[in-house]
Amino acid sequence: MYRAPVLLRQLEPRTARTTAEAIKFALWPLAVMTVLNRVFIKAVNGFITDDFRPVYNASLAFLNGNPVYTANFDSVDPHYLYPPSGTLLIAPLALVDPEKSRWFFILLNAAAIILAWYLLLKLFKFTLSSVAAPVLLFAMFISETVTNTLVFTNVNGCVLLAEVAFIMLLLGRRDLWAGAILGLSIAIKPTLAPLILIAAARGQWKVFYTAIGVPVALTAIAWPLSKDADKFFTRTARYIVDSRDYFNSAIAGNAAYYGLPLWLTWGMRIVMGVLVAITLWLLYRYYREDELFFVTTSSGVLMTASFLLPSLGQMYYSMMLFPLLMSVVLRNSVLRNWPAWLAIFGFMSYDKWLSDRWQGLGRNLEYLRITFGWGLLLIVIFCVLGDRYLAARRDGRLRFGIDPTWMSSPPDSDDAVADTAPPRSNTAAPADTDSGERSGFRAEPYASALE
Questions:
Q1: CA nearest neighbour of 51 among 77, 89, 83, 86
Q2: Residue range 61-86: average pLDDT?
């Protein structure tokens, strides 16, 4: 019988013997090649929307002692909106020429996203050899939020890493470190500020010391070094809190674009705010001892509400929802239903719905899918938890929690796959791309303005 030479046998690709192995063998090449494409092709190519240029110019102005907060808010170009503390932290970017600095920033954010991916695997007790590893990596880099974060070259990748690190440190009861990470993030941009409510709900008050102390200290250092630090509060902050009608997928932004009456806009915001409040109460009342589920689900609800309800929300903010999306592996996850994933498609998909044949319909689908996606996700979570509560009250078992009784039974055989999700536990886990006019044709809803 003919036998291949030893060298050829060593080079022969390993054949999968299980379904899990087949999935891993299929997805690892797809995931790795997608990462390389996003980082070294799409990001380096860039696009008309350039978040990095205002950051670099502000850093250069800061280092040279020139005014920083000079943006023309009448234009739809990306503006520099970081506070003085953020200017201090990002100023070293201007120590080299703009092209090399931009490449470094792309690599920094890509590395931060990959590290966040690894920490998310650890948080949910998966290994690099699990099926979850390539699935999560591919899902992250195929999404709009990661793609445009790298293409537009902004800091959201680092903010995602700060969020995941904060969650892990919070669950590990390392309060001061958790607060320090959150504080560093807030010092640059306040995206993660709502997460401090989770620390309050868990009674981890030491988080507040560093979460507030770090940005205050950095602001105190930056203030005398900046020529116009006061202009951030007297000029830039006013622009941030206004609801603009472009590059804005919050309820207020789309309502302004479509000309909805003020009473209807506020009515939608108030109704959604009430749903969020009830959802957070149910999570606090019945799930705060189920630490991983409580923290990841509550963080997702808070983040989604902070995109949808205030004055500004942009599509690629959705990166901060990856911990919530990863919670689908938990048996009592609120995302184990198809409406939740229809919602997630709305704000995560890189697909465009602009149509040459049906222009009006396509434009509405493209502009509204993010807003509807965030809103539908909040409604789904509210309905899932509300249904569990009503069923538990009807059955007289509220004192035992609101999870359905079947969740306490062993999983069915078809749920048992290699590297299955961790069971519910009460213990802490280990430690747009086109530009457009202000009127007529609206610019892509996920095009950025650095917020």
A1: 77
A2: 89
